[in-house]
Amino acid sequence: MSGFIFNTTKSIVSEAGAGARIADIAVSLLGRRIVLVTDKGLRRLGIVDPALASFARAASEVAVFDDVNADPPERNVLELVDLIRSHRATGVIAIGGGSPMDVAKLGSLIAGGGENLSDVYGVNAAKGPRLPLVLVPTTAGTGSEVTPIAIVTTGGAEKKGVVSPLLLPDIAVLDADLTLGLPPTVTAATGIDAMVHAIESYASASPNNNPVSNGLSKQALRLLGANIREVVFNGTNREARGAMLLGSLLAGQAFANSPVAAVHALAYPIGGHFHVPHGLSNALVLTHVLRFNLPKAANQYAEIAADAFPELAAVPFARRADAFIEALEELGRELKLPQGLREVGIPREALPMLARDAMKQTRLLVNNPREVTEGDGLAIYEAAY
After folding, report:
1. What is the pTM of this model?
2. What is the DSSP letter of 69?
3. DSSP code for 68
């Protein structure tokens, strides 16, 4: 067995209703002057109200930052840093999807360590320290609560990442109640996103691909595959919602250590240029990338096929990878997700631009089981069109 490193969040609390007693869980870590990061939609829906009431009972002074955009631009991080400093915050908590959690990660890092945001992009460039940090996901998708990664949009449309163990929060809190109102389309796209994390991690060409991540990927796919239809079509099922949150977290732990690859590399330009949500961007290119990878990764895909789709255990191993891709295609149709780039308003003439931009994602492409050239990227986009 090759040597490997496995890092994850220090403490995980999984409990329905935990958001309503968040002060009991987090105040001793965060201190009394707290910045809560969310977005305006969640604020408007009252999702963060139970947490605010919990902090009020604990006599905490909470400033709310709800100006996070989808595919957050750098300015969101800088505005948060300003608020953290003016509030003299002792800790940061995010309640939301991947965007609020990523912004909170970077805000706590920059405000805590005094570095410039432009200096921490890349792998292990951040020096820290950061402020105490708690992350509470409201979608079962990104796994950001257990990943050392934060992604922001720079300039016009390019996405850049900060990768550092410093970004792992002190506490991750999974509360199924916070996901009960998630619309079916968002539930479907974020659920597929979590499945992508598990699939790409398992087949990653990273030298840090490891048995711990592999086991987490397989367990994640069991939970996600067994529950994704239920949460899309019966979103009030608390048990299924909790299973999806846990599956997303396990997939996040897996890819945090055995990183994702070309699906994400090709998805990022779709989101950056056309503001397609990240999970849906992944779903649009997923099966086309997997089919491209078959010459190098068929065995890995066959090994995990029955975890996501138990009925595939009856398919001969030699054909199981193809059957896995076909099952993923059928799942996307069943969940009523868009089936092509044209369906989300992307013009065909934009495909060469997307292929050029995808090649900038070298941090991800290096992990793909099969080398991807710009021409390959264009062919995949064409297939996905």
Report:
1. 0.96
2. P
3. P
Average pLDDT over residues 187-214: 98
Phi first, then psi: what are they for 84, rounded to 5°? -55, -45
Q: How far apart are CA 240 and CA 228, in angstroms?
A: 8
- pLDDT confidence tier of residue 303, bands split at 50, 70 and 90: very high
Q: Measure the CA–CA gap between 310 and 328, rounded to whole angstroms.
A: 13
Phi, psi of 123 (to 5 degrees): -100, 120
| Cα–Cα distance, 117 to 326 (Å, whole number) | 42
How many other β-carbons are positioned within 10 Å of the β-carbon of residue 231?
A: 29
Instruction: Tell me the CB-side half-sphere exposure of residue 270, using CA atoms within 13 A.
Output: 31
pLDDT average, residue stretch 215-224: 98
Q: Which two tokens stand for residue 59?
A: 């006599």
Residue 258 is which amino acid? S
Q: Are strands 133-137 and 91-96 parallel, antiparallel or unpaired?
A: parallel
Quickly state the pLDDT bin for 41 (edges 50, 70, 90): very high
The token duo for 98 is 């991947």
The secondary structure of 7-35 as a DSSP string is ---SEEEE-TTGGGGHHHHHHHHH-SEEE
Tell me the C-alpha distance between 226 and 224, whole Å: 5
